[in-house]
Amino acid sequence: MHLHIPRSLRFRFFAALGGLLICAIVALAAISALVIFPVLQAEERGAVKRELDRVERSFQLEQQQLLAQVRDWAHWDDTYQFVQGDYPRYKDVNFSQEMFEDMRYQLMAFFNKAGEVYFLAGINPTTGNYQTCTTPNDECAWMESWVNRMQAAIEEDKADQSAIYADQEPVMVSSTPILRTDRSGSPAGWLFKTRNLDDEWLSFMEEYTGLPINLSLIQGAASSSDAFSFSGNTVHAERYLPIYSPLTPASLGIGIELNRTSYLTNLTTFRYVLLWTAVLMVLVIAVVLLLLEKIVLKPLRLLTQFTQQLDIHETDVHKLTRRNDEIGLLSRAFQEHLTCQQQLNEELLTLSTHDALTGLPNRRLFDQRLETAFNEADATSGSLAVMMLDIDHFKLYNDHYGHPEGDVCLQRIADAMHSLAQTRDFFIARTGGEEFCALLPHTSPDKARDIGEQLSAAIDDLQIPHSTSPVKPFVTISAGIAMLQDAKSQSPSAVVSCADQALYLAKEAGRHQVVLFRQPLASTEISPHNTSP
Ligand SMILES: Nc1nc2c(ncn2[C@@H]2O[C@H](COP(=O)(O)OP(=O)(O)OP(=O)(O)O)[C@@H](O)[C@H]2O)c(=O)[nH]1
């Protein structure tokens, strides 16, 4: 099937600007997807990472504080003497449930320099009671797993640091060798303190950081990259810290949950900007199309109508030709060309329908008028007379006076006939060399004959000398008249033929007379001129 695609300028502009709009919107969408959205997301991740950093720093600060507290106790002569058995009242003086609760310690473990348990004190996580033991058995069995890890740390020479231990729950552990206050001498043992990372600690951290925090124990080594999960208006991020675990690697996940307000606000703002940009582009293109329509396309259409000479209002032509732009120039040039063309056409028309010598209508125009008059008379059953006129003995005139003088004679006769035609309102043409034809619509035979006689008299009045004419010493004419009804075949040429026959009779009858065609020819009526010699 052949598709018809309109090629008008309006269509082309519409297609081009529409295409441009689609390209621009696609480009905007691509820029959003490939550049702006990733930037917004990276910015959001960056903000979340900064929050994770802050939480991690708080966590490290807690660890440093616990380590400082451990060192404070471990580098004290009293403690030094205690682990060597020289200060039996040490535990009574320094330990109590209140102290553990105030300092949020869960367990304090003293080891001698052989790494054996010397003294244990802590808050039982199940009962909440303060307990002291010398071995992690019986009532202090809950301490056993922690003590084992601590002894492993001493063996691995990792007992002078802060770390995270985990069993069922994660705990923060700080440990250091026990030294004299002046740090002299060799360590008398090791001191470990643990702080439970329980709900109470979490709420303390949440209050401190202003963020909701949760902890999770994960099997396997700590991942170096943070984990993010986005759902609706919230983002959950997790950072992993290593757990000291001698047998299987494990890690502690510190998770925070943040509102995506900033990201979502940016996103909404950006979407608004995108939407309004698209709307603005559509508006701009619509305005461009409107302006194009008003400034270029409509005037071009008018100009096209003007050049095709279609139905165009005069004021529109005026508007076009008064413009100061290219369309105005083109319109003025065309108008000049058109005027020139119309003049030429008129001249051509006159030349093609008029006789050059006399200026009278020629046979072509006569035939056209005859056709029109015939049809009109036929349709209205009106009357129509056709008169043929011929100069008598014009050959003799030419022969005697010469052809140029014959031309002058023809012109004078034509002028006289034309004047009368105008006065009596009928049409006359020069249809042959010295032959003329008149069309007389709505004219009765009598009136036609009357006009024929007036024409003959008008030529007589010219008194153009014709010394060789056997009729008169001046130029005369003969006329034959036929009515529409006279023609048997009822056609224009048949009427002319009847008039010609009547003219023939006028000539035959001696010339200088008007003959009215009658059926049969024998009964033709001859005008009074006939009586004159
Ligand atoms: N000067 C001049 N003569 C013309 C022109 N056209 C035709 N004629 C002459 O008109 C003459 C017509 O002659 P004919 O047809 O024999 O008729 P006639 O001599 O008028 O005789 P009848 O018509 O019988 O009275 C010819 O001699 C033509 O040369 C013209 O334009 N100028």
TrEMBL record:
Keyword Transmembrane: yes
Domain GGDEF positions: 382-519
CC annotations in GO: plasma membrane
GO biological process, one term: negative regulation of bacterial-type flagellum-dependent cell motility
Cofactor annotation: Mg(2+)
Alphabetized PROSITE patterns for the sequence: GGDEF
Superkingdom of origin: Bacteria
InterPro entries: CHASE4, Diguanylate_Cyclase, GGDEF_dom, Nucleotide_cyclase, Rev_trsase/Diguanyl_cyclase
Record keyword Transmembrane helix present: yes
Annotated keywords: Membrane, Transmembrane, Transmembrane helix
Transmembrane regions: 12-40, 272-292
MF annotations from Gene Ontology: diguanylate cyclase activity
Catalytic activity reported: 2 GTP = 3',3'-c-di-GMP + 2 diphosphate
EC number per UniProt: 2.7.7.65
Enzyme class: transferase
SMART domains: GGDEF
Xref: NCBIfam families: GGDEF
Protein name, entry field: diguanylate cyclase
Originating species: Vreelandella subterranea
Source taxonomy: Bacteria, Pseudomonadati, Pseudomonadota, Gammaproteobacteria, Oceanospirillales
